[in-house]
Specification:
This protein has a domain of 214 residues: Rossmann fold. It is globular and about 60 Å long. By secondary structure, the protein is of the alpha/beta class.
Amino acid sequence: MSESLGTDRFLITGACGFLGSALVARLVEEGAPVLAFDQPGAPFDRLSSKVEILAADLRDPASYRAEVLGFSPTRVIHLAALIDNSRDFDLYSKLFETNLSGTVALTSVVRELSRLGSLVHASTGEEYGNVEGVRHEELPPRPVSPYSASKAAVTAFLTSLHQMSGFPATTARIFLPYGPGASPRFFVTQLVSAIRRGDPFPMTPGLQKRDFLYVDDVVEGLLVTCRCPPLCGEVVNICSGMGVSLLSLAEAGVKVAREEGVLQDGFEIQAGKLPYRQAEIMNYVGDPGKLERATGWRTEISIETGLRRMFRAPKPGSSTQNSV
């Protein structure tokens, strides 16, 4: 568990998304004041009535400057981003405009805060690209998609801002989060949905290894990172350090679903039905050592436990809403 939140006041961007809504819920449990920032039209009704709401375009600092400075956060966790992992050249301008320009706009405002202790930029382990071995923070970025290129650009911007002015930014490279409410684009979400429906599950041969983290572990990792002053100006992995192949994960899903009594007739793992993606990363596993040395924290929730929690959660469209 993270340390007591004390008198910290949190600005959370992307507050209505998958990670954002889980983080906001955790902060509300701790009694921390929260300003939940997302774009106009975002489903703010999924958030607690105890938080303050800010609906604005991240790229337009004039539209939210007064409200942010009035709230006076001491911690900013910056989750807002346009996420698209496809390898489409036409995405470059769109993703850089939203992810890089939006972050530059946000920092132009929060730099004015006199009590700002940290800003944590939620990035992706995909910044490392397709390299051999476990990914550690000393490796140079080698992004393999417009999305990871845009996030690497944000990391470079924040690192240079820290070097130039001491701005207290940290980039947290999050590996593969999953859990109830995650995007239907995510592999684990698709697997759980197919098992519940009893549909065949076409996939690649599934030999690529991934470092999966249950959403509660990601939330804890973000909180300990934002409260660790020595990490300001640094890049840090939020990961488990344990790789599991997609095929092994699918098989674990079947095992847990059978034990939970939710495995439907008709479900079948169709490994090899789909090809690998262009520039597929075959070994996507992070080194958690830097964060552990700085804070003592490591992930706690196993794949089996995480899958069990997903099968026990309400189905999408039932009593709870789900966010991307």
